[in-house]
């Protein structure tokens, strides 16, 4: 059993995603329209308490060449403050192209990304969290795999 939140931290909005208790499937929960730090944390705290959250998974916007740019450093700074305020550990996931993928998903659903920015943020948060869950599951499977008899 695991309870984590995926966060897509933006200047105007925070996309929030959660997962099932088995830690296999991520889904968007909500989008927080940022007002100020205290208000943002209060909304996140309520979600964390309702869901019994143990950890925050935050998308880190690396540059396309894999470097940490100024936007990534801003996200790290904000994520660290949020983690400290909620007394929760923070892990980062490479979020390159998640917003693009989220927009493509909306287009497939015949919805305009421009008119549904809240959904773009939620879907991006779900993609970030799903990536973390998949990596965690793969790691668990590889450590539980029986040894290769040919070795």
Can you tell me about this structure?
The radius of gyration is 16 Å and the shape is globular. It contains four helices and five strands, in the order E-E-E-H-E-H-E-H-H. By secondary structure, the protein is α/β, with parallel strands linked by helices. Helices cover 47% and strands 21% of the residues.
Query: How large a portion of the residues is in β-strands, by DSSP E?
Result: 15-25%
In what order do the strands lie side by side in the largest sheet? 3-2-1-4-5
Helix-strand string: EEEHEHEHH
Tell me, rounded to a whole number, the average pLDDT: 86
Please report the total strand number as a whole number: 5
Layout of strands and helices, then pairs:
Layout lengths: L3 E6 L3 E7 L6 E8 L3 H15 L3 E6 L9 H17 L3 E5 L3 H11 L8 H28 L7
Parallel strand pairs: 1-4, 4-5
Antiparallel strand pairs: 1-2, 2-3
Helix pairs in contact: 3-4
Quick overview:
The chain is α/β, with parallel strands linked by helices and 151 residues long. It has four helices and five strands, in the order βββαβαβαα.
List the keywords:
151 residues, alpha/beta, five-stranded mixed beta sheet, 5 strands, 21% strand, globular
